[in-house]
Specification:
By secondary structure, this protein is an alpha/beta fold. It folds into two domains: 213 residues, Alpha-Beta Complex (Spore Coat Polysaccharide Biosynthesis Protein SpsA, Chain A), CATH 3.90.550.10; 60 residues. The chain has ten helices and twelve strands. α6 runs parallel beside α7.
Length: 298
């Protein structure tokens, strides 16, 4: 069985299309769990009526992605957990292709498909990699798809927007902070999980025939962009709270998983990224320097 876990917070634009794509899979042994984070009662009732097969978890407050996803995984029964953003739509054979790939090697603990944008020609992710500056790198991000990533292969990790995880692996890497580290809330949690899994000998795998479409950032973007320095996340679109969390979570990821040797070797790249961050803050969001200094982990 595959347990599909979706977390939502009043993002109704794509949710029904997402759910329809889950229930339209060729792989039929699926349970679907939807976690509502501080959602409108009308939205909850609408989904309850439209999708009676859904298992619902309803939170009165917004627990963010990590804690809510952990709730879903804890409630699930499947051999695999497919963590899915509410702004992702799956092709009908997506789950079948991922499960088939995972079954070929017992050390494959996480599987990614080819994730495209909603225009169906721009790549969003073909596997997650660890950047030299210790940021998550989505391979192919923002590039046109012309078949350059059409071969199956092992990868460092998988993007959290549509990630299939083997339950045995999740249990193996779980610690006091959960499967996804709940201190992260949102951002870097997929890189953190992938890095922890690699350190325990688990492998990531990429399956290009598994296709999904992602409206990148639909659940977190606000306002208008001013300037974007940052790969994967459009920093300018984020609220102040999320900007602080994005910066802090990178530091937490480094502290948790990087080795002393790895950190020293990549220090020039890390420092260059630091300069970019703090130049942005200095010129565009100086108030965040104070908030960042005052913030606490967890």
């Amino acid at each position: 069985m595959v347990s599909v876990i979706i977390v939502t917070h009043n993002n109704q634009r794509f949710l029904k299309d997402c759910l329809n794509s889950v229930f339209g899979q060729t792989y039929k042994d699926i349970e679907a769990i939807l976690v509502f984070n501080a959602s409108l009662p009308s939205a909850i009732q609408d989904v309850r009526i439209s999708f009676p097969r859904l298992n619902l978890i309803i939170n009165d407050e917004n627990l963010l992605f990590c804690r809510a996803s952990n709730q879903g995984i804890d409630k699930s029964q499947g051999e695999y957990a497919l963590c899915l953003n509410d702004d992702v739509i799956l092709e009908s054979d997506f789950v079948e292709a991922l499960v088939e790939a995972a079954s070929a090697d017992k050390k494959i603990g996480m599987v990614s498909g080819k994730i495209l944008r909603m225009d169906k020609v721009t790549l969003d992710s073909t596997g997650l990699f660890l950047g030299k500056s210790r940021i998550p790198l989505e391979r192919g991000f923002n590039r046109k798809d012309w078949g350059q990533y059409n071969g199956e292969e092992y990868v460092f990790g998988v993007s959290g927007c549509a990630a299939l995880y083997r339950r045995i692996m999740l249990e193996d890497i779980k610690d006091q902070y959960g499967y996804f580290d709940e201190r992260f809330g949102i951002f870097y949690e997929d890189l953190d999980l992938s890095w922890r899994a690699n350190k325990k000998g688990w492998k990531g795998y990429y399956v290009p025939r598994a296709i999904a479409y992602h409206q990148r950032g639909a659940t977190v973007k606000i306002g208008r962009p001013a300037l974007n320095f940052f790969r994967k996340y459009n920093f300018s679109y984020l609220s102040d709270e999320l900007k602080v969390r994005l910066i802090k979570n990178r530091y937490m990821t480094i502290r948790k998983s990087d080795s002393f040797r790895g950190f020293i070797f990549h220090l020039p790249f890390i420092l260059l990224y630091e300069i970019r961050i703090y130049l942005y803050l200095l010129f565009f969001s100086p108030r965040l320097l104070v908030k960042l200094a005052q913030s606490k982990d967890g």
